[in-house]
């Protein structure tokens, strides 16, 4: 008998029992969908974090005061928490600029949270104080207005570039360029507005104002820097640059006084952790695939018993063992593959819907794996019932009630 | 016998193990059935007539002795070869019809043709012809539960005929039918016989048996008048 005929037979017998076929597939559907969904959440997280680092700049090195392993973005003000003897100053920046061969540029950063006011509107926000290089190094764009000039920085001129959130909060729809706002107790002139950047690490990056570091150190009487960005010429040089920065700094201070963080190091260790997490999530979901497979075997066994008489009759009119065997295997494989396909669609849609709330990425390997496993499950768990069916004695089977 | 022999049963014995005891269902049976004959096998229950029918129908193999179907010995054949003989040489009609409930009359009749490897379009055509021949031209797409008992048995007869078998074996074909439907079925079988088909009816009903040319009586696993 031709394969096509066997396939049609199998399909017809599944069609004649739609509800049961669907329920049998449900195990596989849920298994495949959850594998795809969980892996997509894991991979999404991974790519989200890589992207964040990429935005930060793969060729950026961060120098922080004190000795820290991993620091979160909170506690910017005056560096990481704890009693740290902060020795990073503008002088350090100048030394690095002068002595570093693998240093393209150096960006001092001071941060402070304060209240911004315009007219009657006020808003709690944060300032970032830096130089005119900030915009190019942090890859930010201006929606309107212009960047600081070198003169603004050297003279400590009170000018500010606002993030769109802050602008919206205190100006609303009004024109803001050239207007004077209060940042803390000093008056600053708005000279530019950043383009929207969105949230990173759960923080609104657009709720801020950038001011010249010189103006900030005068206004707040701050000597020390929150951290320093060092840009290396290319992303491949970051390791060399980091080593050089460390060498230069060690001449001026102790090992405990600073931390040089290479974004690549941090990124690779984070993505590695997330990778393990993703596989673990997928594995847990994989267990439900296995359970789904056992469900298929169970139903196929029941189906063989229930259809004993049918098998007997098929044999009586000339079905060979192979015909019965293939029919039942095809039924099982068809159930699991169809279940797998439906699961893929549901997993894909589910991750698209979840994508509205958090970043997801459906990976081809998770689809391939889920589909392969479901097809394999159908075959493996279909063989035993099919073999049982094909070996039935036609006389016994016909007599079965 | 001057006619060609299509079923030859020689010294056939069939023993079954049952709870550690050997049940001798058939003890040395000899039987010849000629081409075109209409034969009834009769006997009380437990006489071994079902066993004999299963052996002739190639559903089972004898413990001892030889059975030839259309001059072909069956004793050395594997399960799949027997399946092929059943497919090509034998048509079964069962007491309880044995139609597949989720298939239409046409699909049921097509079943043996599927296993014979005949293409779909031809299958449809042949199956339709056979159903028309048993008077079910207007019931092709009905399911078994939409048909009366007599109609179901006619579908089963069409199925038995569909491969143009050498032998039609009918096991109590009227056993589940009322008298009128039973008579109709016997009329169809008589007609088939008249057209030259070899028909073996297994029954315990003397009235039915008398419709055939020859009655073979089985008692305690022994045939009285097989040859």
Automatic annotation (TrEMBL), chain A:
The keyword Transmembrane helix applies. Signal peptide: none annotated. GO terms for cellular component: plasma membrane. One of its GO terms (molecular function) is transmembrane transporter activity. It is a multi-pass membrane protein. Residues 21-247 form the MacB-like periplasmic core domain. It is found in: Cell membrane. Residues 284-394 form the ABC3 transporter permease C-terminal domain. The chain crosses the membrane at residues 21-45, 273-303, 324-350, 362-384. Keywords: Cell membrane, Membrane, Transmembrane, Transmembrane helix. The keyword Transmembrane applies. It comes from the Bacteria. InterPro entries: ABC3_permease_C (IPR003838), MacB_PCD (IPR025857), Macrolide_Exporter_MacB (IPR050250). Belongs to the ABC-4 integral membrane protein family. This is Multidrug ABC transporter substrate-binding protein. It comes from Candidatus Beckwithbacteria bacterium CG10_big_fil_rev_8_21_14_0_10_34_10.
TrEMBL record, chain B:
It comes from the Bacteria. GO terms for cellular component: membrane protein complex. PROSITE patterns: ABC_TRANSPORTER_1 (PS00211), ABC_TRANSPORTER_2 (PS50893). Transmembrane segments: none annotated. The keyword Acetylation does not apply. GO terms for molecular function: ATP binding; ATP hydrolysis activity; transmembrane transporter activity. Pfam families: ABC_tran. CDD domains: ABC_MJ0796_LolCDE_FtsE (cd03255). Residues 7-227 form the ABC transporter domain. Keywords: ATP-binding, Nucleotide-binding, Transport. Belongs to the ABC transporter superfamily. This is Macrolide ABC transporter ATP-binding protein. It comes from Candidatus Beckwithbacteria bacterium CG10_big_fil_rev_8_21_14_0_10_34_10.
């Amino acid at each position: 008998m031709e394969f096509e005929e066997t396939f049609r037979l199998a399909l017809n017998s599944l069609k004649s029992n739609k509800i049961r076929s669907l329920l049998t597939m449900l195990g596989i559907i849920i298994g495949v969908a959850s594998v795809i969904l969980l892996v997509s959440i894991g991979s999404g997280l991974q790519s989200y974090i890589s992207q964040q680092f990429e935005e930060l700049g793969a060729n950026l090195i961060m120098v922080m005061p004190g000795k820290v392993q991993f620091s979160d973005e909170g506690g910017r003000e005056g560096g990481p928490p704890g009693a740290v003897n902060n020795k990073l100053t503008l002088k350090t920046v100048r030394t690095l600029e002068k002595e570093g061969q693998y240093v393209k540029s150096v960006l001092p950063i001071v941060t402070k949270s304060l209240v911004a006011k315009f007219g009657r509107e006020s808003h709690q926000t944060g300032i970032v104080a830096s130089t005119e290089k900030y915009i190019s190094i942090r890859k930010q764009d201006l929606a309107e207005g212009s960047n600081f000039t070198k003169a603004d920085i050297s003279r400590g001129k009170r000018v500010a570039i606002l993030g769109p959130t802050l602008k919206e909060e205190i100006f609303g729809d009004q024109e803001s360029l050239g207007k004077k706002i209060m940042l803390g107790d000093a008056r600053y002139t708005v000279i530019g507005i950043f383009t929207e950047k969105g949230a990173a690490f759960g923080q609104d990056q657009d709720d801020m104002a950038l001011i010249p570091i010189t103006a900030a150190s005068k206004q707040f009487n701050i000597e020390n820097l929150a951290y320093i960005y060092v840009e290396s010429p290319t992303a491949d040089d970051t390791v060399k640059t980091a080593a050089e920065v460390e060498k230069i700094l060690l001449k001026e201070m102790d090992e405990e006084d600073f931390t040089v963080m290479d974004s690549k190091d941090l990124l690779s260790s984070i993505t590695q952790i997330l990778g393990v997490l993703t596989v673990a999530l997928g594995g847990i979901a994989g267990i439900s695939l296995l359970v789904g497979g056992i469900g298929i075997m169970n139903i196929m066994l029941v189906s063989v018993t229930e259809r004993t008489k049918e098998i007997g009759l098929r044999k009586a009119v000339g079905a060979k063992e192979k015909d019965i065997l293939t029919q039942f295997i095809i039924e099982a494989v068809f159930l699991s593959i169809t279940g797998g396909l439906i699961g893929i669609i549901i997993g894909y849609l589910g991750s698209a819907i979840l994508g509205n709330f958090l970043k997801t990425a459906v990976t081809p390997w998770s689809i391939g794996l889920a589909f392969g496993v479901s097809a394999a499950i159908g075959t493996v768990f279909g063989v035993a019932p099919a073999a049982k069916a094909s070996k039935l004695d036609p006389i016994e089977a016909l007599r079965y009630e | 016998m001057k006619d060609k022999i299509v079923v030859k049963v020689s010294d056939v014995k069939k023993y079954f193990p049952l709870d550690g005891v050997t049940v001798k269902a058939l003890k040395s049976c000899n039987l010849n059935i000629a081409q075109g004959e209409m034969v009834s096998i009769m006997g009380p229950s437990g006489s071994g007539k079902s066993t004999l029918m299963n052996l002739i129908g190639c559903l089972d193999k004898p413990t001892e002795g030889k059975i030839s179907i259309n001059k072909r010995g069956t004793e050395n054949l594997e399960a799949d070869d027997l399946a092929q003989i059943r497919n090509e040489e034998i048509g079964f009609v069962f007491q309880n019809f044995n139609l597949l409930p989720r298939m239409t009359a046409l699909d049921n009749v097509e079943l043996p043709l599927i296993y014979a490897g005949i293409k779909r379009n031809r299958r449809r055509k042949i199956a339709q012809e056979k159903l028309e021949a048993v008077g079910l031209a207007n019931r092709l797409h009905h399911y078994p539960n939409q048909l009366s008992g007599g109609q179901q048995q006619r579908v089963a007869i069409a199925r038995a005929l569909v491969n143009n078998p050498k032998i039609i074996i009918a096991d109590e074909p009227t056993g589940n039918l009322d008298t009128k439907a039973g008579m109709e079925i016997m009329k169809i079988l008589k007609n088939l016989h008249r057209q030259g088909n070899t028909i073996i009816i297994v029954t315990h009903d003397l009235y039915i048996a008398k419709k055939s040319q020859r009655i073979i009586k089985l008692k305690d696993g022994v045939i009285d008048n097989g040859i």
